[in-house]
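Hi all, long-time lurker, first post. I run a small reading group and we've been trying to get comfortable going from sequence to structure in the token notation. Rather than ask abstract questions, I figured I'd post a concrete chain and ask someone more experienced to write out its structure so we can walk through it together at our next meeting. Sequence below, copied exactly:
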Amino acid sequence: MRGVNKPFTPTLQKPLQAEHRFPSVSALAIDLRRTAGFTVSDRQGRIVGKVECPMYGTAPDVPDALSVRSGLFSRRRRLVPADTIDQIDGTSGVIGLRVDREAIRSFL
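-- Answer (accepted) --
Happy to help. Here is the structure in token form:
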């Protein structure tokens, strides 16, 4: 029965960084220009809406916030500042926030 649970790749004799543990930290800046159509969810996983477009404020080429529409025929939009975004998953198209839905300001 030797070799039944054999891994596909050979294992290293010594781990490369056994004594060092680093948390995963992303050094990349969040690019809000390519998030149109993404679904936004709050801290508890509740759907806030879909990103309509990025909004620019302090710099003309760097967006500061997102305009999020809550429904298909809804006129109200929510202003989601960039500092409230926790993570962006590009493969599934979901933006996770670190605040609740009630903390996000709405505008016309």
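A couple of things your group might point at:
The beta strands are 39-41, 47-59, 62-69, 77-81, 85-89, 94-97, 105-107.
The chain has one domain: 32-107.
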